Amino acid sequence: MVEKKNFDSEFCGNLPLHNVNLIQDYGYLLVLEPAGLKIIQASENTVEITGKPVQELIDTTLAQYLDEESTLKLSDSLKSGIRQRIPFNLTLKNGEQTGRFHALMHVKADYILIELEKAKDLEGKLFTDVFQEVKKIMAEIEQAETVRSVCEIAVREIRKISGFDGVLMYQFDQDWNGTVIAEEKDERLEPYLGQTFPASDVPKQARQLYLKNPYRLIPNRTYQPVRLYPVINPVTNSFIDLSDCNLRSVVAVHLEYMKNMNIDASMSIRVIRNGELWGLVSCHHLTEKYLDHEVCAIFEWLSAVISNGVSRILDKEAYDFSILLQQMRAALTDRVYERDNITAGLLPEEGTNLLDLFNASGAAVILNGRMETKGIVPGEDAIDNLLMWAEGKSINKVFATEHLAALYDEAREFAGLASGALVIPIDSTKGDYIICFRPELVETINWGGNPNEAINFEKDGLKYHPRNSFKLWKQRVEQHALPWKQQELDAAEALRTFLFEFRTKQLYN
Fold first, then answer.
1. In this predicted model, what pLDDT tens digit does every residue of 118-137 receive, in sequence order?
2. Per-residue model confidence (pLDDT) at position 1
3. Angle at Cα 368 formed by Cα 365 and Cα 373, nearest 5°?
4. Residue 4 forms part of a structural domain
5. In sequence order, what are the residues at sequence separation of 6 or more whose Cβ sits closer than 8 angstroms to the Cβ of residue 188?
6. Tally of domains in the chain
7. pLDDT value at position 123?
8. Residue 258 lies in a domain
9. Exposure letters 209-246 (e unless 16+ CB within 10 A, then b)
10. CB of 229 within 8 A of CB of 58?
11. How high is the mean pLDDT of the chain?
12. Closest of 241, 238, 253 to residue 213, by C-alpha
């Protein structure tokens, strides 16, 4: 018998991912003083594009390396009022030579940060061609009727545009474990469809960074990290915050994770719902793979398209479910008024009842020391003991659990009948309660590797490694019921308020 476990690693979640002070070697980084655009910090590889060692670059102005057109673009971008992820193209002078670059600017309170990547062609594709492809994807997603359909369209089309060997999408659960719900892959890659990856694979801090960056590209896991000079930012007197930077270097444990997956390049694209990370599109490639900034910009666009598609469907489902609950709750409250009796109104012989409203297998209504039940419920003594436990816990608001046995030991004896419980205190001071039950739902979780071995420390307790196997690892979970949805909890609270007021009127009229 196995219980669900939280695999979100506090250790991984506290790694300073944004303060690595290193960048990947496929681009360049400049940090400028806002007033005169003087270079106050830069990546050491900028010698490749300016002809000057980074030590000599410091304290010079960026304008002296730009042509007139690029200077105007930079000025216009600064005047735009946008402060994050401002894209534009510029030309840098390197002695007698010039080079074209994609620039991504981040305007901070005390400095300006500019990421640079060499401009390349879209592998022979005109932007209009790609634009038409994106419009087609948008149309397909707008017509999709299920979340799964949106995800399948997304992975198929992203793989087609990007050329990655494999693309998958996984959705986060309430504990931040990610389950693969769509996949398109080369046969040389391991299949992961239907498998779940522990939360520690994308720890808390990494998830927070996806709220700032629509995508994360690692073209080559064997890249040589590039340091910044000077090491300490002269304005903040600390390591610079690279949270917003696409070029931000990758922690060693993740590169080892990629190695264990037998991939050399990866890209992750966020899916957002209600301002939170809902899922990720994860792209894998067996060999090194660089994507031009313009292609990445397309995936940034698709991130929003996919997020909107998922949100549209889930919002409609949530709205329809809320309306259905409201209708059933109204039917119950009308019947309580009609019969002037709470128990008769909530547990009628025919018509909508408590079990329908809360998708429960059984329910008990306890009023004036009398108990009435409907459906499949534990024995009367077991319910009495559960009530005493609830009163001892001073439960005076709606309380719900999908794993009652973890909180109340005696519940293990009737877990098959009632692993989930929804407690609605009508008036806890008088011992008046409603309890709805849900049966045990035995679940087998197909993990992508043993989640208990997600992080492995060496004997010194300092060095650590990710798991080296992603082979299917099954976990059987018992004594859990179907979780209670937020809309159901809201309906329970509304019902509790109505019943308390109705009960009060009965007692004093």
1. 987 554 555 677 778 888 99
2. 46
3. 20
4. no
5. 165, 286
6. 1
7. 47
8. no
9. bbeebbbbbbbbbebeebebeeeebebeeebbbbbbbb
10. yes
11. 90
12. 241
